[in-house]
Amino acid sequence: MTERPLRIALTKGRLEKDTVGLFEKIGYxxxxxxxxxxxxILPVGGADMEVVLAKANDVIxxxxxxxxxxxxxxxxxxxxxxxxxxxxADLGFGKCRFALAVxxxxxxYGGYSVKTIATKYPNITRNFFESKGMDVEIxxxxxxxxxxxxxxxxxxxxxxxxxxxxxxxxxxxxxxxxCPVSARLIVNMVSMKxxxxxxxxxxxxxxxNIG
Length: 211
Ligand code: PRP
Hints:
The chain has helices spanning 16-26, 31-34, 56-65, 75-81, 122-131, 147-150, 165-169, 189-194, 196-209; strands at residues 6-11, 41-43, 49-54, 70-74, 86-90, 96-103, 115-119, 136-140, 156-161, 172-181, 183-187. The chain is α/β, with parallel strands linked by helices. It has two domains: 6-94 and 182-209, 3-Layer(aba) Sandwich (D-Maltodextrin-Binding Protein, domain 2); 96-180, Periplasmic binding protein-like II (D-Maltodextrin-Binding Protein, domain 2), CATH 3.40.190. The strands form two sheets. Strands 2-3-1-4-11-5 form a six-stranded mixed β-sheet, with helices on both faces. The protein is elongated and about 60 Å long. The site of 1-O-pyrophosphono-5-O-phosphono-alpha-D-ribofuranose has 12 residues, from β9 and α7.
């Protein structure tokens, strides 16, 4: 049986450009990746490696199931989804932070009513408020979470903040930083054993070219 190429699941969107930049720095041929059109599986750096473009949550699913050996995904998604895989490197890009934000000037911690929090990250939100011993109601939102307090659906949001522009332009402000976030390299647990040499070679090159 011919062994399939080493397969890397790459989070499309925000992390894509920096990952391609890293691959180019390493010296991998990224032409197919840069001119991908609507293709989702692309060769990179020769015949023994390919990239799969996927949404962040799916990167984790593919790596956990072993259909991809390696993944590039944000720490935010890793924290939210958990899962069984090795997290082996901080890639140093895709830097942002988790924060609790509210409408500017609102007294979030005042009063006795149970507060409602909108978020794309219910598990992180639950853990954060549990660690404070605070009971909150969590509403899961799929995107542009900033809308929820503006529409009075929630008292606050837990979301990732990068430049802070989205909050600022919508009259919201951070009242508490939760933790920093950046892109990580993850590896399937079985691949780590069966393709050790190939993965070590790849990781070594990544480590030499980050930062
Ligand atoms: C993220 C996040 C904020 C925004 C923060 O959303 O949920 O809305 O980026 O970035 P900023 O601090 O630089 O303004 P994303 O763009 O990923 O879109 P989504 O909310 O539709 O998922």
